[in-house]
Amino acid sequence: MSEPQATETAVLGRSLVDEPRSWLTGGMLALSLWMVIGILSLIGYHGLTAFWPRPLHLRVLADGTLVMGEPVRARLRATLYDVGGDATGERKYLWVDRDASLEPISTPEAAVIVDDPVQGRVIGLDVAELLKDAADQRAVGGDEAVRLALPGQARLIAQSSTLPDASAGIEGLPEAFSQSLFAQGLMADVSSTLVLGQRSLLFVASSSDGVPRVFIVGSVSALEGQTGVVSVLQEMPTLAIPRRTLYRMQAPNRLGWPDKVHAYAKRWNEFLTEMPRGRAANGMLPAIVGTVLMTGLMLIVVVPLGVLAALYLREAPPAQWSTSLIRSFVQSMAGVPSILFGVVGLVFFCHWVGGYIDGGPGRVGLVAWQPTGWLVASGLTCCLGVCSLVFAALCSCGRVPSNRWSNWFIKGTSLLCLCLAIDLIVRSPYFHGFYTTQPNATYGQGGILWSALTLALLTLPTVIVHSEEALSSVPRSLSDGSFACGAGKWQTLHRVILPFAAPGIWTGIVLAMARGVGLVAPLMLVGVVAATDQLPVDTTFPYLHGHRQTMHLSHQIYSLGFESGNPKGMRPTLAAGSLLLVAVIASLNLTANYFRNSLRKRIDDRLL
Amino acid sequence: MRCSDVLATALIRIGGRLALASLVSVIVVLVGRSLPLLSQANLTVDYHLPAVRYQIVGVVQESPVARSLLTKPSAEDPNEGTESGWWWGLTHDGRLEVRDLANGTVLDSLDLPDPQNAGDSDTDSAELTATCVTPSGRAIGLGYSDGSLQVLHLVGSPHAASSVQMQSSGELATSGDAIRCIDLLELPSGESQFLAASKERLWLCQPRSSDSPLELRHEFAMRQRTPVGPLAVMLAASGGQAMVAWEQGFIDLVDFTLSPPQSVASQSSLLLQSAFTAAQPVHGHHSLLCGTSDGELLVWSILSPDATLENLATAPRLRLRLTHRLQLGEQAIRALAVAHDDRLAVAWDAGQTASLVQLTTDQLLLERPIAQVVPNRALLSGEHLLMLGEQQALSGILHAPYPQLSTRGLFAKIWYEGDELPSFDWQPSVKPQSEARVSLVPLIFGALKAAVLAMLFSLPVGGLAAVYTSEFLPSHMRYRIKPTLELMASLPSVVIGYMAATIAAPFLETNLLALLLTIVLSPLALILAGKLWCGLPTKWRAADVSWKLYCMLACFPMTYLLAGVLAGPLQAQLYNGDFVVWLGTSNGSAVGGWLLVCLPCALTIAGVVYLGRQSDRTARSGTRPRAAILPSLLQSSLRVLLILGACYAVSSLLAQLGLDLRDGWLHGYQAQNSLLLGFALGFCLIPVIFTLTHDALQAVPQGLREASFACGATRLQTTIRVVLPLATSGILGATLISFSRAVGETMLVLTVVGNSPLMSWSPFDGLQSLAGALGSELPNAAPGSSHFQALLLGALALFAFTFVLNAIGDWARIRFRRRIQEI
Question: Is A339–B7 a contact, with Cβ atoms under 8 angstroms apart?
Answer without folding.
Answer: no
